[in-house]
Amino acid sequence: MVMRNKHVRAWVEEMAKLTQPDNIVWLDGSLEEKERLEAEAFATGELIELNQEKWPGCVYHRTAVNDVARVEGRTYICTTERDDAGPTNNWVDPQEMHAKLNQLFAGSMKGRTMYVIPYIMGPAGSPVSKVGIELTDSIYVVLNMRIMTRMGNIAWEQLGDSDRFVKGLHSKAQLDPENRYIVHFPEENLIASVNSGYGGNVLLGKKCFALRIASYLARNEGWLAEHMLILGIEDPEGETKYLTGAFPSACGKTNLAMLIPPASAKGYKVYTVGDDIAWIRIGEDGRLWAVNPEYGFFGVAPGTNMNSNPNAMLTVRKNTIFTNVALTEDKEVWWEKMGVPAPEKAEDWKGNPWTPESTEKAANPNSRFTAPAAQCPSISPHWEDPEGVPISAILFGGRRASAAPLVYQSFDWNHGVFVGATMASETTAAAAGAVGVVRRDPMAMLPFCGYNMGDYFRHWIDMGKKITNKPLIFNINWFRLDKNGDFIWPGFGDNFRILKWILDRCEGKVEAVKTPIGYLPKPEDIDLTGMDMTVDDVRELLSIDEDVWREEVADIERHLALFDRLPDELNQELAALKERFGF
Ligand code: O2Y
Ligand code: MN
After folding, report:
1. Where in the chain are the domains?
2. Are 375 and 258 contacting, i.e. CB atoms less than 8 angstroms apart?
């Protein structure tokens, strides 16, 4: 079955001529294949087998020290016309980039094996799912893709004789950071990644395909590929409503996707459908329907513990690949804020000896777990439904000390697009650079949109005209600070209380207060049962400071000026916002 598709065969032959691997292995996704590849990687040291009594099926990997995160500065969208990539994407003429890449890939797999990975993004057999083929010289990539996508014969079967697949060529080459390139050719359904062995740069089904290439396809085909979690909330009567949400990194997106409601929310359950990416279409009923195109989670380890995210901790106990965390003498894993005592002796993520007295971090701050979504205790029984789940609300959010209230609802779809297009987060001490700097990241898609962002906003506005049964759009901010610089809202499971208000709004069960920025809750409508918090605290969380918003509006104006092809509807929303404030 594996060798049948002539289009794949021709492309593999061509790429093998270029990269010159010693062998080509066509993958079928079987357990036997996984065990063979793991054994090979244990023998070379590419992987370390973890303590199988405590971490069954789990393995450990370290990347090169210069290769621990996505590289936005070296990520390109190569469209024929520069303006189709837009001012916020790196662009090089496709022919020039092909010439450059051909040099870098030439002979890059000599002495190595090329693995041919067939994979599906989206549930197998779903009308919305799409097939990709990744060629790679990394067993680590193969084993990650095996968790993150539906990989192997299932994908060969879905592809059949078709030539409709997204091509992805990856080579670690020399892991040379100066020649690291993550390149997308949306007009050719092609991704090329060279000189990296890490995460979002090399697991080409994830950010490269499911967001950058998919967003381009989605615009042309009339759907949305979004950087969004998907979760379901089941009420005590057994009815489930679904939300999607886009947040910049460091806002607890995976934690929200796996939230456990507080004890006071008796009879409610939260279900995880996806923690990072949503493919969203208009259903025949005029509603939006979302699928999670992924099959696993590639989550940040540090800070994940039984308080912040018990579901994630339980998910990673087996069959998980850990990358760049610390390794204990007993071949267990450890990371900062794991919620268990630090080991007396360990190796840090660089492989150096580490003790609790060390001044270096044991785990890299961007260290990761790759774990099967099916293992998540909160996984939704509908997470693999071919049509997806119907969406009642879309959430945008960020980390704001004072500007954004805890929650507000947009007035309508176009205002919601404006809220998403201007969403912002303030930098934290965890990120490099100054703390408290406002960064605007529209719909959390700035690094992931495979075409011009102005056209992307236009696509959102046009979609609104076609969705007859629209979800409501909200902005949330768990991160308001008090005068002492402490968080006012406890976050985590208590965030459910805000999701509950949002669903009540969707069902018309609760009133709201009209303000210049949108509809806000009446403070007494947020359920505080069992919390050490007063209605006055909520009033503070919902307050809107005019002076802060005067500066906010000026900053939004500067932000919108960055985009060419900005839909006039967004300028109109800005003008309306100013008018409501009287600025
Ligand atoms: O640094 C990387 O390569 C991973 S980035 C990532 C991984 C999982 C989910 N989201 C992200 C992101 O950057 O948004
Ligand atoms: Mn993400």
Report:
1. 6-46+70-221, 226-292+383-581, 296-375
2. no
